[in-house]
Write a sequence for this structure.
């Protein structure tokens, strides 16, 4: 696992350049924000950046996350209970997610067994499997009492 705890603005600049992307204030700020707030939506990023970059627009955030995703600096995840796509800087490790069905909270789940893809399907219909992306759906501890109130059988 290569979770780098010492990511600095300078190293984001480096990663942008290595990916062939020009370093812009918006791209750097989006990477910093996503590193601190994994699984954020484009709207979250916009809200998070607008204090520092008042001129940033929803359209520019969409362009930024699109470029960062295409160059694999950011991973896009689409989860069934999220209204919009989420983004994170934790790429290339094929980790999975667990999502609370009540509040939508999303957490990372590390690969449990072996190398990516860490799930072995019984029939791939002739395809070569490259990655596996699983969403475990559950209830987080904060929401569990709510669910129990709603459904005593739970
Ligand atoms: Zn919850
Ligand atoms: Zn994640």
């Amino acid at each position: 696992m290569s979770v780098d705890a010492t990511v600095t603005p300078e190293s984001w600049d480096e990663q942008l350049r290595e990916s062939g992307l020009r370093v812009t204030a918006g791209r750097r700020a989006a990477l910093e924000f996503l590193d601190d707030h994994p699984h954020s939506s484009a709207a979250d990023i916009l809200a998070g950046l607008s204090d520092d970059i008042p001129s940033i627009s929803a359209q520019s955030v969409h362009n930024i996350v699109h470029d960062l995703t295409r160059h694999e600096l950011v991973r896009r995840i689409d989860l069934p209970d999220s209204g919009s796509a989420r983004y994170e800087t934790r790429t290339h490790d094929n980790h999975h997610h667990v999502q609370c069905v009540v509040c939508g909270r999303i957490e990372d789940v590390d690969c449990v067994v072996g190398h990516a893809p860490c799930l072995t399907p019984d029939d791939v219909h002739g395809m070569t499997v490259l990655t596996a992306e699983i969403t475990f759906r559950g209830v987080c501890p904060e929401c569990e009492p709510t669910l129990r109130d709603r459904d005593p059988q739970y």
